[in-house]
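Anyone opening a protein record will find just a pair of labelled lines. With that in mind, the following record should read easily:
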Amino acid sequence: MNMFAIPLSALRAAQHGMNTVSSNLANATTPGYHAQRLQLAEGAPVIDGNLRVGAGVVIQGVDRMRSAWIEQSLLRNNSASGEAAARLEAALQLDTLFNPTDNSLHARTQQFFEAWQDLASRPADSTVRQDLLATADALVSEINQLSDRLTELARDFEVQINDTVNTINRLAVDIAALNREISVGTATGNTMHDLADRRDQLVSQLSELIDVRSLEWSNQPNTFSAANGAMTISTRAPVLSVASTATGYQLLIDGWASPLPAGGGRLAGLLEAGDAIIGETQSELAQWSAQLIRAVDQVHGQGVGLDGPFTVLTGERGLSSVSIPMSEASRDFPVDAGLLTITVTHLETGERTVHAVSLEPGLDSLDAFMARIDALPNISAQVSELSGKLTIIAHQGYAFDFTGQTATHPDMSAWSGTSDVTIGGTYTGTVNDQWSVRMLGDGTVGLTPGLQAELRDGAGNVLGVWNVGAGYVAGDELTTSSGITLKFGSGSVVSGETAGFRVTGNSDTTGVLSALGMNSLFTGKQAGDFAVRRDLLQNGRLVAAARSDQDGDNLNAKAAARIATMSNFTRSGMTFGEYLAQMTSDSGALVRSTQSAVDQLGQIHWDLTTQRDGVSGVDPNEEMVRLLEYQRLFQTSSRFISTLNKVLDDLFTLI
């Protein structure tokens, strides 16, 4: 045996050990670096007869210090943290948009309904009317701005989604390239710790963007799966892409048609933010604003301004088609089956006639509905095929409205007496009904003792009984509890004969007034393009605060103000204000929950990083101790070799 073999093996071990320690110290702060350890073993002994003599030290290799379990746990934590951080970004921005302030949507909505209450108190005041229009304009401006901000936010997140997908593809390509180098180097017997560190650092970055899992426990070294296992990265990297569809974003691998989930990471958070968080908020705002505009326009359409009924009126909203069923042509503002009540007034005499126009939206087109209106006496109607808008025109000397005022005279076709009955007043009820006047005796109005008339509703309930015989002055008004008045003219009446008339609490049970924008307060069909009618802004007299031409009538203003407390326009029985408050509460709760998740994941990340550093990190103090050990080994080996040289020199001298 070569007597120098043992000390030389020790010298080599010391040299490699010092190189390893030096590399560790130099990379103590290098991101992703894993400490390396020189693995030494006793050399195979030399057998000399019955003796087994040691043959020095053997370098088995250099190990890369790492815990697969900790590394995998960190990858999972990175993905969860990236997802939560992206969700938190969206939640914080939404919370800022809906945070109640003096100029927020909450405040604008409250101011709008308070303005209707003020108008109900002073319906003829021009200043109050202009204040109402100003609050209405501020309300729709805030709705439009919120819609635009949400659209911009959605676009920003879409850009981030595309950028993230591009980054994922770039990292996957780089990881695959390093895997190829590592595989080739390992096959030739080389240790590729530096490349493995670089590769794992890229994998760590990738795990922040999408879920990543190492397959080393499945006997697949240098292989990683992502996107819930649908994306495998080894020596080749698949290409990830994203597509925006009507139902949201879809991830695709190598152009496959089957979408896959992101699984985790920032990409998953961005996708959820774009689809669920921002997308659902956009949908809720669109639904809320459309329902609010529809409710207000529906009430406004049933009223009149200070100038009374209309001689010509064109709708502000057109349908997509005038020839297909309205249920298909009016999707933004849905219409229901029911009746539209139109009151036609003779301008010189003030005499009113009332007409109920039926609508079956699943069958009737706008053309068919228009034809029914056009067939009514003293008005005509037409539709523009280009704009899809309806126009109603009163004949010379007439005007019309949708107030639901009663006809001046009841249906007296079954009335044989000579006394005439006149209906007046303004109906203050909320239901539509058919009432009838019935005589309780024969005689002459104003002369026959004990002659009475009774009023019944459609269910046969008696609403009132009045003396119209001796003591009654023909033409005097008889007042009901619902605002309707009756007048009996001079002449005879016959016992048991009736005269019927319609009372209207809701002149439009179809919603067609708001769908077509007939006498609406607003224009536009969806958040982003709502506006107050321009002619209203220029002439506040057109604001429909009344349900009749009587001075001081404020019934329509009261009806508009009541919308604030109505709960049948939004989800879960909420009012418009409560719905907004719930949206704000939801956004705040989302911020708190996601912030809590981010904080918890951050603590877990710190714990895991501490554990990883305990295994893979470089402790300069420990490395210096090892360096001293290798230095002593080197010095001892060198001294041993020097001693051997001296012994040999002395031996050769003797020879």
